[in-house]
Q: What sequence folds into this?
């Protein structure tokens, strides 16, 4: 069947403080209407899609926003479930995030992170032909669920380690905290902060490692320390260069300290090119990395951490920690979409759609 219009309805697990109205969103890739309706849940505590009530909340309800994102295609498209799920859902979430970020930009309102697919438990699709005849719909459930309580998915050894750490008041190493932050930022689409956090974690561990070895080498091979200090301060024309963390500068120190047993030079070079340099461009040149570039920065950074964690350090023994780059592939389960596969009406064409159809959105949202 041929589809001229798709309306995507889903709930956002917090309330957007905008008047209940229709907002026309214009982007480089698509144009759409977004209808927002503030809701207060007072019943049906079983799921986020219907009424996301928080059990035992003193008010017995919670605030949230219901959205309907409306796409009208320039030319009717053939129904393909995969295309609708990937392209339209991706665009719908993007439109909501544009609204959220515009609110943050133009007001004092803030929120935790951009809405991602796993924040939305249920998505309702309505399809219309060229004559505005409804052609049925679909209801998709989320790949991820917001759960409270229930059966734990942790493995027995993980539960044992957690219990032990809590009982012994062990502090989370700052390097590990930064790594976790980097992965979280990646999942939420904040690629700039993701690149910053992973490289900061590396520089902290490297600082500990280099200080440890330089202290030893100062007594046994002072010429290596002198060469390192000269190299780390040589030709430092801009603040964006940190030669003390450049692989060619670090390598002689580690080779001397470990009696030339260092391995994994390709891992080190990949970190230098894809993680360290990306972070410096982000911090000092306003670079905005995309998902692919950020993923490479995290993976090469984790591989590098996993290599150097076995070197001697002073502040903390990192050899028992795990920095697994495969984790990024496991959490990155969103398929790439073909953004050119559908074309919506122009901003001007959407603006001319009669007001009566806007009232229909209001009725649907309720």
A:
């Amino acid at each position: 069947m041929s589809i001229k219009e798709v309306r995507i309805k889903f709930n956002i697990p917090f309330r957007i403080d905008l008047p209940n109205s229709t907002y026309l969103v214009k982007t480089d890739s698509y144009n759409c209407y977004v209808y927002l309706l503030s809701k207060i849940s007072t019943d049906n505590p079983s799921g986020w899609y219907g009424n996301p009530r928080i059990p035992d909340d003193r008010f017995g309800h919670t605030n949230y926003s219901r959205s309907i994102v409306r796409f009208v295609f320039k030319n009717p498209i053939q129904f393909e479930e995969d295309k609708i799920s990937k392209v339209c859902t991706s665009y719908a979430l993007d439109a909501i995030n544009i609204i959220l970020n515009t609110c943050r930009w133009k007001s004092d309102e803030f929120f935790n992170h951009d809405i991602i697919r796993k924040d939305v438990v249920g998505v309702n699709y309505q399809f219309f032909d060229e004559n505005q005849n409804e052609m049925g719909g679909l209801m998709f459930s989320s790949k991820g669920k917001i759960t409270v309580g229930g059966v734990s998915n942790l493995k027995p050894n993980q539960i044992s380690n957690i219990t032990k750490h809590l009982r012994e008041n062990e502090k989370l190493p700052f390097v590990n905290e930064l790594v976790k932050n980097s992965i979280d930022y990646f999942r939420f689409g904040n690629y700039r902060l993701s690149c910053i956090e992973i490289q900061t974690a590396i520089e902290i561990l490297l600082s500990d490692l280099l200080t440890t070895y330089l202290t030893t080498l100062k007594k046994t091979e002072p010429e290596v320390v002198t060469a390192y200090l000269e190299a780390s301060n040589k030709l430092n024309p801009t603040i964006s260069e940190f030669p003390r963390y450049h692989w060619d500068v670090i390598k002689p120190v580690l080779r001397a300290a470990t009696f030339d047993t260092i391995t994994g030079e390709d891992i080190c070079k990949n970190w230098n090119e894809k993680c360290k340099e990306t972070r410096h461009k982000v911090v000092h040149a306003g670079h905005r990395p995309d998902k692919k570039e950020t993923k490479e920065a995290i993976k090469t950074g984790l591989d590098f951490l996993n290599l150097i964690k076995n070197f001697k350090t002073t502040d903390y023994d990192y050899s028992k920690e795990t920095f697994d780059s495969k984790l990024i592939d496991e959490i990155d389960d969103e398929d790439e979409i073909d953004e050119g596969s559908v074309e919506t009406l122009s901003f001007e064409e959407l603006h001319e759609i009669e007001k009566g159809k806007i009232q229909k959105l209001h009725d649907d949202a309720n």
Observations:
- The CA atoms of residues 10 and 123 lie 5 Å apart.
- The chain has eleven helices and six strands.
